[in-house]
Design a protein that fits this description.
alpha+beta, eight-stranded mixed β-sheet, 4 helices, Bifunctional nuclease domain
C-alpha cells in the first residue's frame, strides 16, 4: 500500500465531473479520480472546516462507528475497474480489523474528517497513476 494525501481538488460548477488528485507522500506520482459535483463540494467543505447546521452522512457514519465502540483506522483505495475506483474503510473493533466497502469519495471524506491515513493499493497506483509536476 502507498500512503497518499489529497493534493488538489478541481471544481468546475459548469460540469458534473470534478477532479481530485491523491499524491503519494513519499514520491511524485498522483492518482486522478473523477467525482460528481456533490461529492467534490463535500470534500471541499471538509477541507475548509465548514460547519453544517445538521449532520451530513459522513457525520452520521462517524457517530455510528463510535457508538459501536469501533474506530476508523484508515481508508484504502483498493481497486479500479476501468475508470471506477473502489475503496475500503478499515475499522478497529475489539482489536480486530473490520473492512467495509465504500465509494472513494466517502472514504476520502471520512479520512479527512477523522484525520486517519489514506492509502492506495500498489496495483491501483501502478495502473492509474500520473507523474506529478
Amino acid at each position: 500500500m502507498i500512503a497518499v494525501e489529497l493534493s488538489q481538488i478541481l471544481i468546475n460548477d459548469r460540469s458534473d465531473e470534478q477532479l481530485i488528485f491523491l499524491k503519494e507522500i513519499d514520491g511524485d506520482r498522483q492518482l486522478r479520480i473523477v467525482l460528481r459535483i456533490f461529492e467534490a463540494l463535500l470534500i471541499d467543505r471538509v477541507l475548509k472546516g465548514t460547519e453544517n447546521l445538521r449532520p451530513l452522512t459522513h457525520d452520521l457514519l462517524i457517530g455510528t462507528i463510535h457508538a459501536l465502540d469501533a474506530e476508523l483506522d484508515k481508508v484504502i483505495i483498493n481497486e479500479v475497474h476501468g475508470q471506477v475506483f473502489h475503496a475500503q474503510l478499515v475499522l478497529i473493533k475489539d482489536g480486530e480489523e473490520v473492512f467495509m466497502d465504500a465509494r472513494p469519495s466517502d472514504g476520502i471524506t471520512l479520512a479527512l474528517k477523522s484525520e486517519v491515513p489514506l492509502y492506495v493499493e500498489s496495483s491501483v497506483f501502478e495502473s492509474s497513476s500520473e507523474k506529478g509536476d
